[in-house]
Design brief:
Layout (H helix, E strand, L loop, with lengths): L1 H34 L5 H8 L9 H4 L28 E5 L3 E6 L5 E10 L7 E8 L2 E10 L10 E3 L5 E3 L6 E8 L5 E10 L4 E10 L8 E9 L15 E6 L3 E5 L1 H5 L8 E2 L3 E6 L2 E5 L7 E9 L2 E9 L8 E12 L2 H4 L16 H18 L2 H15 L1 H16 L1 H10 L4 H15 L8 H19 L23 H15 L7 H18 L4 H25 L3 H15 L1
Parallel strand pairs: 1-7
Antiparallel strand pairs: 1-2, 2-3, 3-4, 4-5, 5-11, 6-8, 8-9, 9-10, 10-19, 11-18, 12-13, 12-15, 14-17, 15-16, 16-19, 17-18
């Protein structure tokens, strides 16, 4: 029993340390942002060069023939600061899934709203996955690399008279076409194709060579964004914000902003497969190159809190009088696990389950199954928690039986402790002999708990990462399972359930340990004030089921004689 309590204290204490560390880091980050970037020559130079074009490395460049025109950064770096991107005319596109704004300067996606996902600030306003206003910047940029070729600083012209496009009821797609000014006999068109019922937007360059020499341009596609977490994120539960990449050889990798700050990011750069993305809680922006085509990935820090991640791909040789094109799909949408897998290999891994993905994936599948059955994500969480508890019942029952046996010999253990309190070695030998005579495994109550811990942690992360819970109602006052309980009733109930669970166990012999166990429910209730309601609901249901299970085992196996006698004395005093 003491071993079990020690394990629980270690788990709870570690959780508290992680939460405290996350809070400290969040405060430091917010203080730094509030203070603003330090003015230094290095910072000025970094900001001035943020618009410099990406340059393909030797491996990708050497894939072209020796007679190829080697592409490079064009002209001098722009002096435009990250917060003052050049702007031109705005082109608005409305489909059944998104509202997008394209700037004619560079043809950038300057804003993209997800119509089926409300913002945290106002439920009536769609969530903006891409934006470039105020202190926030997250844009999708693309261009060509080569002498006088259009890039994300080039002014394009619309190939139509309208600046507003809408997906009509009888249409399956909307096409927007921008035209760059012809330079040196090179004509370039930039074409965007929006599809009905899809978050994938095709970005295409059409290049026609009217000059006298063969050209071999490269195309680049990048996501430029800041390191400010989305609105509504709690500092108590840090979620991933940063770049990510996937290749067949290296599989899924996160590219941390902190590693880019130190220029220590290690990721595959040259491949003929995979994708690169920017991730935030619940959503992903990803460039999805065609498989089995050469490409070079890049990620770098642009300024104090501005980063870019993207891909460079060869357009191919274009002889005089010939034309060619390159298309790069852009996914801008939620991290819906069941749909991402069909878009690109490994894209479903952007759903951040941490190191327990192998366990979390089937748990989410079961959660989705229950939701399809009952139509309520809160009820699905309850059913999933009950299912996991039932599956682990034999293991839990064995652990509780072992603890119940330990409770029965508690008086004998206390006598041994009194008898040999000055000789710990002798005390240990006597206790081991008692365990042997009573056929008790002192670790029998601890091991079953340790085996279950990874599963319950995976369930925790499953609920935290599920975008399906965003604005999903449960019942009564719980209208959003991804946000904290507005009235804190669930955290309070969770704390009460934890207190009852501890009371079912015998009091620790160590007074310090006893005090820790007493304040633990209060501490966790306070921390759970900031947790999403779905996570608190899971913890509450899990505690209630554990209480019922523990009470049943205790009822079957009885209590130590000493405890029974104490309770009888208390009852006798009350009667008198």
């Amino acid at each position: 029993m003491e071993t079990k309590k020690i394990v629980l204290i270690i788990i709870f204490s570690t959780s508290l340390l992680f939460l405290w560390d996350a809070w400290i880091k969040e405060r430091e980050r917010l203080d730094k942002l509030a203070a603003g970037p330090a003015v230094s020559t290095e910072n000025v130079q970094s900001q001035q060069s943020h618009d410099a074009l990406p340059v393909p490395g030797e491996t990708l460049a050497s894939s072209q023939s020796d007679t190829a025109q080697v592409p490079g950064a064009e002209g001098t770096p722009s002096a435009v600061t990250p917060r003052l991107l050049a702007t031109g005319e705005q082109v608005k596109v409305v489909t059944d899934m998104v509202v997008a704004e394209i700037d004619t300067v560079g043809g950038d996606f300057r804003r993209l709203e997800l119509l089926k996902h409300p913002s945290r600030e106002n439920k009536e306003i769609p969530y903006a996955l891409l934006q470039s206003q105020g202190s926030r910047i997250s844009v999708a940029q693309s261009g060509l690399i080569g002498d006088s070729l259009p890039n994300h600083k080039t002014e394009y012209k619309l190939d139509s008279d309208t600046h507003n496009y809408s997906l009509a009821a009888d249409q399956d797609k909307v096409v927007v076409r921008l035209i760059a000014q012809e330079v040196n006999g090179i004509q370039v068109a930039k074409i965007y194709t929006f599809h009905r019922g899809s978050y994938v937007i095709d970005v295409q360059f059409e290049v026609k060579n009217l000059g006298e020499a063969t050209v071999r341009p490269f195309a680049y596609f990048q996501i430029l964004r800041d390191n400010i977490p989305p609105a509504g994120e709690t500092m108590m539960i840090p979620t991933y914000l940063g770049a990510a990449i996937y290749t067949e050889d290296e599989k899924f990798q996160k590219i941390q902003f902190s590693d880019l700050d130190k220029n220590k990011a290690d990721y595959p750069q040259n491949a003929d497969n995979g994708w690169i993305a920017m991730l935030e809680h619940y959503f992903v922006s990803a460039w999805l190159p065609e498989q089995k085509t050469p490409r070079e990935y890049f990620a770098k820090r642009i300024s104090d809190n501005l980063y870019t991640a993207g891909v460079i791909a060869p357009v191919g040789a274009i002889a005089p009088g010939q034309a060619t094109s390159i298309t790069m799909p852009l996914y801008e949408g939620p991290q819906e696990q069941d749909k991402l897998a069909g878009l690109a290999p490994g894209l479903e891994l952007t759903v951040d389950y941490g190191w327990l993905t192998v366990i979390a994936v089937p748990l989410f599948w079961l959660l989705s199954f229950y939701h399809e059955w009952v139509g309520n994500w809160g009820v699905a969480i309850i059913l999933l928690t009950m299912t996991v508890k039932i599956l682990f019942f034999p293991l839990s029952a064995a652990g509780y039986r072992s603890m119940a046996k330990l409770r029965l010999v508690t008086p004998k253990l206390q006598r041994i402790q009194e008898q040999y309190k000055s000789d710990r070695q002798q005390m240990h030998q006597a206790m081991m002999q008692l365990y042997k005579e009573e056929k008790i495994n002192p670790m029998g109550g601890c091991l079953p708990i340790l085996v279950q811990i990874p599963v319950f942690i995976a369930l925790f992360w499953t609920l935290l990462a599920a975008v399906e819970l965003r604005y999903a109602p449960f019942a009564l006052w719980i209208t959003d399972l991804s946000s904290p309980d507005p009235y804190y009733l669930l955290p309070v109930l969770m704390g009460i359930s934890m207190f009852v669970q501890f009371k079912l166990n015998p009091k620790p012999t160590d007074p310090i340990q006893a005090k820790v166990m007493q304040i633990m429910p209060l501490m966790f209730s306070i921390f759970f004030f900031f947790f999403p309601a779905g996570l608190v609901l899971y913890s509450l249901v899990n505690n209630v089921l554990s209480i019922a299970q523990q009470w049943q085992i205790t009822r079957l196996y009885g209590q130590p004689a000493a405890e029974t006698a104490d309770k009888k004395k208390v009852k006798a005093k009350r009667k008198s």
